Amino acid sequence: MKPPRPVRLLAVLGGGLALVTLSCGPAPHTVSFRTLTQDAQAPVATTYNPRTGRPSFIRGRIPIGVFGLLPADTTPAVSFGLVNRYGAMFGLDSAEQSLEYQTATIDSLGMRHMTMQQVYQGVDVYAATVSVHIVQGGGVIAAVSSNVVPNVEVPSTQPDIAEDSARAVAGAGVHL
What we know:
Helix content is 23%, strand content 36%.
C-alpha cells in the first residue's frame, strides 16, 4: 500500500472559507486491530479507505461487554467505548475530543445505528462520521463504518475569506 497523500479541502470555518491541508498520518495501529480481532466473537472483515489507509468498514461480532458496559446498553457510551478502545486504527486519539454523538436510529431489521460526527477545535469535519451498528436485541456490534479524517492538524480554524466573499465565490461556481 502506498503512503497516504495529504488531503487538501475547501472548508467552511466560522462563516467563511479556508483551504486546509490535512495529513492522514501513518498506517493503522496494529495493536488496536489485534485487540479488535481478539475481542470479536467471529472473524473480522475490514475494508480500507485507499486514500487514508484506515478502516472504512469493519464487520464482526464485537461484544459490548469488552468496553466495560452491560450487554443491554444502547446509550452513546457504546459508540464512545468502541472508539476509545480501537480509535488508533482510525487515527483518533480520543472519542471525547474528536467526536460528537449525533443520532441513533433503528432500521426495519431492528438494528440500531449510532452516528458520531468528527470535530476539530469545535468545527465539524465535513462528512466525517463514525457509525456503530448494533444487532437487534443488543449486546453485540455487527459493524462499524467510518470516514473520519485521521490525525487532523489544521494550523487555524479561523476563516481566510469573509462570509460575503465566500458566498460570492460559491455563487459564481453554481450554474443553474
